[in-house]
User: What shape does this take?
Amino acid sequence: MFGSPSQQRRTGQSRQSLGLLLVVLVCAGTMLARLVVLQIVQGAHYRTLADENRIRLMARNPMRGRLLDRNGQVLATNRLTYSLYVQPREVTAARWPVLRDRLSTLLAIPADQLERRRSEGANPEGFRILLAPGLKPEQVLRFREQADALPGAEVDSDVLRSYPHGSLGAHVLGYTSGITEQEYEDLKAKGYRIRDRVGRSGLEKVYESRLRGEWGGQQVEVNAAGQVQRILGDKPAKAGGDLRLTLDLQLQRAAEQALNGVRKGAIVAMDPQTGAIRAMASRPTFDPNLFSDGPTVRQWADLNRPDAPLLNRAFRGFPPASTFKIVTTIAALESGLYRPASKVLTTSSFCYAGLCYGDHGAHGMIGFPLALAVSSNTFYYRIGLRMGPDPLFRAARRLGYGSPTGIELAEEESDGLLGDPAWKKAVLGEPWTPVDSITSAIGQGALQVTPIQMARLYAAVANGGWLVTPHLVERPTQRQRIGLKAATLAVVRQGLRMVVTEGTARLLNDPQLPPVAGKTGTAEDPPRPDHAWFGGYAPADRPTLVIVAFGENSGGYGGTVAAPMVKALMTTWFRLNRPAG
Assistant: This one.
């Protein structure tokens, strides 16, 4: 019934063989299934992980374009520096503390500083993280000696923005600094990297897209020791474009030196025919190199002190004082109320509505040219009272006051202030009075003019009635005709020349200079010291240079504070550029 013992033995052996076969088949099937998952389903994922273990991404930052003066002299360039980096793909979270502490001890860099830099520099692309910029030569040498024992860390050369002339032209050139996390999120679609630097002010900011260039990089294969085995891909970085400015280095240097005589002030020198800025300086100033390595806490506090070193005073509005008498002269002659030969009484004082206004001299009946030369207040009090506000402010706007000049640094430029009847009603809630016309006529009302606006006005007188657009980067001339009468321009130009030959700026009547024309101004700013102005041009008959100098709360007069600045610049300019004839 149950078979013989031999048959039972063979049956048992068959069952054992079948069970063993089933086990082998199950194991083989499991292994095959796992291989299918690893090689086919998850193959791409594991290949990526393997590549990440052996492939290193090495970003190459672009060389920023240089800023050059009109003659090709370098105003801003780049300098080589060495920095410490960590490769996040090669340093796990568990290994990092050991590496951090070894680097801290070896290079004398605080461990908390390395920790902070690593945290702030983390990026989704896996690019290396900057741990310490600007290493000293001895730090670089110590690292090189121990590099094999510091896997994942590396020292590499880098470039930082460099301004070889220090603070010279700082407000025009501007400065750069590292990109913030929010900026990176906004700009990464445009090719920016977490290690990028961006222009923060001046031309560095305005021409950021032209100067910055394009990133490049390498994909390299490394071995277990981190040594490069071969280059898998290479994209060279594209350098940014150089920018040739209208500035003249030697004239800019003269402008900076001229401002040494005042604590606060500005100078603008411009070609009256084209609007090309030859020099622009502001005091106090700053060294943009501070931002390349990053200013210290003390340096940052100094940059934000009350007298505002970062502020470009060439673009700020100040009371124009007697320099505004040019506008009043043009308004009077263009209105038809006065002729070029008209004369007005000047006295030692002028009284109206129970108030008396003094003057520094009485000259009797005089015309416009002499009134400009001696800067007679009572002459212009009477002009302003008779003429009223409308012709005055119409002429001011016609000459570019109260609006931007169109210069490239538009974000930094103030419109100034023309406190006309509409402004007084809207801001002060008060009606215009004849007293307002009297004070506005000599530039002491609710008026603020920027040095760059004033340079534009003097250029319009110098070039025969064209309102030019000031510019700092070489480009075709942009200007528009104002439409002033030829007789009006002739009277103004005669008066400005007389200011120098027999008036308040005889300091500039120097045989070493070509004939100079211009106007002084001294603006009250109680309880602080007065502001000092001078605006002028030369040669008087065929002008090639306009200069406006301003001393903020400098005390003294325009003829004693601002005119010497102008003389220093004109001496430099005409030594280098002798007028024809």
User: Anything to note?
Assistant: The radius of gyration is 37 Å. Residues 250 and 572 are 8 Å apart (CA to CA).
